[in-house]
Amino acid sequence: MTQTRPPGQKAGTQRPARPRPRRSVKLAGRGAVATLFAASCVGLLIAARTGWSAFADVVFVVTCGLVACCTRVSGLRWVVVCPPLAFCAGSVLAQALTAPDSFLAAERILVTLGGSAPWLFAGTGLTVAIALGRGYRPQVQALGDLREALRDTRPRGDRWRRR
Fold this sequence. Notes:
Elements: H1 29-50, H2 53-70, H3 76-81, H4 83-98, H5 102-115, H6 117-133, H7 141-152, E1 153-156, E2 159-162
Antiparallel strand pairs: 1-2
């Protein structure tokens, strides 16, 4: 059998080892939540300073996608649940730092959450879609318990009674 070598390579020499690809960043669940909170807070602070409220919303949605992609599969449960909570907490902190009094801060928090509701929905939906695509499968064991509980309970007269 005839072997062919690339020109310039001597017989009996080995090729250099292939460089291993660098590991990508993988966040734990708590780190992902902290990252989402920090990005929301910083985005809201920049939006408060510049007056461009859409900046905070876009930062939130982009961060939701990045966090869902960079989190370990074991931490995706935290990531799926936390986006609206992290944005709300970031909004509270940003308004506490920028508002002159507490009543105005509370008003701005509610206005921010109301104005950002479609973006919150989009960011949460993006997070859930990416998490499901990466292999997150929620455990729906509670539905089996609910079916058993409802099977054992039935209406009698005007009250619900156990069998």
